[in-house]
Predict the 3D structure of the following.
Amino acid sequence: MILEYLQPDASLLDGITVIIRALYYITTIGAVGLGIFAIGFGHRLEAHETARLHRTLLGAIGAGIALSILALILRVLVLTAGANISDPDVWAAVMRSRIGDAFWLRAGGLVLLAAVVMPWRIRSAMAAIGALLVIASYAAMGHSMLFAPRQEIAALVVLHLAVVAFWVGSLPPLLWVAGRSNSGSAASLIQDWSRAAIWSVMIMLITGVLLSWYLTLRLDRIFDAWHGWALAWKVMAVLAALGLALWNRLRHTPALARGEAGAGDRLAASIKLEMAFVALAFYVAAEMVSVHPVDYGHRITS
């Protein structure tokens, strides 16, 4: 929204679309991360934590589908200037486009992701397929479809978002675990998660650098476009969140394992701050895709 209103031909609908896009980034990618955490670490949660995880996951899925529908409606309003919002031919054309492809992938993936809360043997496999579809929806359109090499960029987007989802979607369950009365079991789970998260963060950083390299054709002129400035803000928000995550691993989690008084509360407070920086990064990402990486005035529909 901010970058939209810095342009000479600012549009209220485009500005609102940025906000909605940021919200469905948080809900859909967060839902994927919650599902991944449930598959990998759900068996180590206490009964009330598992119930809370399931409620949060289903809430994120419902919100993600609702926000995706709202974003689709706003996109049609923008494309038609509000003149033909109910025209079935316009909707048919939109749903056959990349916008429609991304929507169906995302919606279908979210529905499959809900299987993780069901008492089915194949629930983990169904949820994993759903998670992949949701992530793939972000490579079905947008910048990844406009730059070469397209296949490599799409693969990097999928891998990047998979590890991002694992990291950010794990934060709410870790926040609940930090509040356990049994600090030893809480610290053990968080330490095991941290070992897996180290590899995820490495992959996230490598794929992020590669994507920035591919999508920024002139690194020497990166700040000539608003995309470059938004990228810089996103990087700072991510680094701040990673700094907190590192501090949690080196200071708060060992203190929790030692049973220090107040260690769980301090860890929970740090995780909440980490979540705030993550939310900021998602918002900036939504701003980024509203402007072109090279030409300031060129909008991308996503």
The longest helix spans residues 47-80. Residues 237 and 281 are 5 Å apart (CA to CA). Confidence is low (pLDDT under 50) at residues 295-302.
